[in-house]
Design brief:
Radius of gyration: 19 Å
Distance between the termini: 36 Å
Order of helices and strands: HEEHHHHHEEEEEEEEEE
Shape: elongated
Strand content: 15-25%
Largest sheet: 3 strands, antiparallel
Number of strands: 12
Helix content: 25-40%
């Protein structure tokens, strides 16, 4: 069974946020979006466009979140939380946010993109040259690094793809080197 057919069955062939039945597509919920049904949602064109383009929201379209925020699917809960957080200045979204409960893991996923944080609250990761790093970027090591606990040295010039950001520390990222997931200081990498 393909991912799309799994989501069509789960969502009863409707958008999991607004209930529309046309122009549906699989939407991988960032940043994890690993191609599984658990980390994807079936969305209409309108919802996916407005999620991906902040500032183009039709506030009345999102009144649908009053129903979809109660979904049992974590991916749908994450999207509902992010949109309600983005629109909370309108008043009614804040009321819905106050009612919405997410377990700790789902809430961490929802907050992982920085949605709802003010510019001062957002932690900005920068490489050795000052370039801003984002989750999913590829970097290259600029220095040989002894990896503690793994008994190997990550060599200078080693590419590290699909990095993750350590949310509470702007000087650390995570990436996979020689099959091991390690924490790397941003001062020792440059963005590709």
């Amino acid at each position: 069974m393909t991912l799309e057919s799994t989501l069509l069955a789960r969502a009863d062939s409707t958008c999991e946020l607004c209930g529309a039945g046309e122009a549906l597509a699989v939407y991988a919920v960032p940043p994890e979006g690993d191609g599984t049904a658990a980390q994807s949602a079936l969305l209409c064109e309108t919802c996916s466009f407005q999620i991906d383009h902040p500032g183009h929201e039709d506030i009345n379209h999102w009144r649908c979140l009053n129903d979809s925020m109660w979904s049992q699917e974590p991916a749908v809960q994450v999207l509902a939380w992010r949109m309600l957080t983005r629109l909370r200045a309108e008043g009614w979204p804040q009321d819905l946010l106050d009612m919405l409960y997410l377990d700790d893991e789902t809430l961490a996923w929802a907050q992982s993109t920085g949605e709802g944080q003010s510019e001062e609250d957002q932690v900005e990761h920068r490489d050795s040259n000052g370039a801003v790093l984002e989750a999913g970027d590829s970097v290259t090591l600029i220095k040989d690094l002894n990896v503690k606990g793994a008994n190997f040295t990550a060599k200078r010039g080693t590419p590290v793809r699909n990095i993750s950001l350590v949310q509470d520390n702007p000087e650390q990222i995570e990436g996979r080197v020689e099959g091991q997931r390690i924490v790397i200081l941003t001062q020792f990498v440059k963005k590709n």
